[in-house]
Amino acid sequence: MQEIVDVLRELPHVDSPAAASAETVAADVARGHRALIRRRRNRIAGSSLVVAAVAAMVVGVTQFGPAGSRPTAAGESGTTTQQAPRIQLVAFTGTQPAGFRVDTVPADWQVISSNRNEFVVVPPGADSSSALPMVVGSQGAEAEGSSVSYDGRIAVTLQGMSRLPSETPVTKVSVNGRDGLLGHAKGGVIWLIFSDAAGKKVLVQVPTSVGLTTDQVVSFAQGITVTSDAHSVGG
């Protein structure tokens, strides 16, 4: 009611010494109601415009970021985490090893040992020295006859006396239609043991840090052929 009184006070009045008639009062009240309705509509419309403007600002900041910023393109540094591309297997074009012929190797990896005992490749930029024999047996036996370390490297040998630790979960896989066992040895290394067409047991060692998937490890193993010159590490 107070709003109507305020509106009536703001309406222009015609000075008249005579008392207002009932019709005049009714007309004034009607005008006051209409003015009040207009005021409320204008207030609501103004509030809606403010809300819409704020929403538009929020959307703009969310999509485009603060002033002067722009989306980070692939390969550029920024706050968005970019996943590293998965390593790819490519055709091996080097001199084939005497003991183990291979079809594929990880892209840009370097062969550091290829003889009748082993086939070993290292990632780009890794130390390619041929020292430090690797402990390959699950019981801690050293790899006698090996001249390189398998640490951080992919290696192919005959299984010999090496066994998967009894406590490791083992996954059965198929390598060229023959059964294989895939598990983890000590030191964060994936082991894949399988038989070739002649019944020789082959051991593939791949560090988990390389990033090959299980399917890629199996694919790599499917491209391995054991020659008649292959010897087990240690004789």
Automatic annotation (TrEMBL):
Keywords: Membrane, Transmembrane, Transmembrane helix
Membrane-traversing stretches: 44-64
Protein's name in the database: DUF4245 domain-containing protein
Source organism per UniProt: Plantactinospora soyae
